[in-house]
Design a protein that fits this description.
RGS_sf; RGS domain-containing protein; 0% strand; mainly alpha
Length: 196
Amino acid sequence: MQLKMQKERKKVDKVVFDSEERAFWRQRRPGQPNALDEHIQKTEKKLKKCTLQGYRQQLERLRLSLKTKPWLKAMKASDTMVSWCEQFQDYDPFLAPSQPSNPWISDDTSLWTLNTDNVEVPTERRVKRWGLSVQELVRDPIGRQVLETFLESEFSSENIRFWMAIQDLKYSPNCQIECKAQKVHDEYLASGALAK
């Protein structure tokens, strides 16, 4: 009988009846007392209290997702940054106390005197920092002098001089680049150059 009635209805009536039925079941959905309440699964998720084990599992899932996605190299970058910070923490005045005392706190300026660019004997801490990377050695003026002295004994001091000339060229103003590039070419790269 219902089938017969449904066939006889017009298309517009069918659409109205269908939407009324959906609204009826949306309001009186089984297992939910009120149509305005949240879905049961959502409230269950809120009720679950995360334990230490739950947080550890979530952390492991996130780490695994970082490792399995090749386009996301954040984990490797963060590991590199952490190891770099651990390596340099002894030389950071905010993290490690300076020896001798900090001149900004006390009136003792011996720290500045020991770390000037023209001191005869570098401090032990300064020499240890040179051992971290060649960049640290070359960045320090005394370290660069020590490296030049060593390279002269090995008959390859032109290597460090060439590198310093290139660094000077790299950070030069635009108006001086052509002149400095020609000077580097004539001194190091041209046939019959003095430092070749």
